[in-house]
Specification:
Layout: E1 2-7, H1 14-24, E2 31-36, H2 41-48, E3 54-62, E4 65-72
């Protein structure tokens, strides 16, 4: 299952907070996709989940729009 969070227009730390809350509800091997247009959000989200067992993939899908995929692995 893939869950999505639209963080377009949200300023930091809101995307990281929404991500952390949604991550808690993920089962192992589930994915969470965050869409954001705030340039510091990818690094803040990565830092927020630094102690979690997950894979994080960050792609700038359009100039200024990032898609962050988080896969819970343990």
């Amino acid at each position: 299952m893939v869950k999505k969070i639209d963080c377009l227009g949200d300023f930091c730390p809101i995307p990281a907070i929404k991500t952390k809350l949604a991550y808690k509800d993920l089962e192992i091997n589930e994915k969470l996709i965050i869409i954001t247009d705030h340039s510091c959000a990818p690094s803040n989200i990565k830092d927020t989940l630094a102690n979690e067992k997950c894979n994080i993939y960050i792609n700038e899908i359009i100039k200024g729009i990032w898609e962050i995929t988080i896969e819970k692995i343990g």
